Amino acid sequence: DLHSFPTRRSSDLRTFFLRILEEKDAEELFRRMLYNRNHLWPWINEMECLSEKHLRLQILSAAADYRSKQGMETGVFQENELIGMISFQMLSNLESEKSGEIGYWIDRDYSGRGVMTKALKHFINLVFDYFDVDELCIRTDIHNQKAQNLALRAGFVKKGMKKNGARVHKNYIHVQHFKYTRKEWENDYRQDEDDH
Hints:
The chain is built from six helices and eight strands, in the order ββαααβββαβαββα. The chain is an alpha+beta fold. The chain has an eight-stranded mixed beta sheet with strand order 1-2-3-4-5-6-8-7, with helices on both faces.
């Protein structure tokens, strides 16, 4: 379950990798999210009820989803330090529409350093390799420009905005939709292989 990836900056020799979250990670995840409370609060509903117990149950639920190929929750690690998360959840298993949604966050101290771009691209490869899914989507608050830029760098295409499309902390927000199909991913993957 370990998947290493290079950082964008050649001068940064530290190893970053993705790993499926385990129950033992709940304590560190809780500490990291508390440290990033103000950074994450505008975008994540779960910050209202944040607790180590809640995160432990969430990790166990995600592990069950992974076994049944319905979802996956990974930590982004710098060496052995948890610095972010990327998750995937199936939305539809219909033969005509097998789709899923991706969500992510990164520690404020690592934001803007290219780590999450590499991690998200790596995560997308894992999702398309492991899950029977034809289309991925990302939904962001229209004011969360960093999340939108990340989606575009990872290959997603902007598909439209839905007014009052989600509720965060009792307030409705306008949601920007992004999509990335398996066909687009296969074309991008082949291009990356040709470039190397």
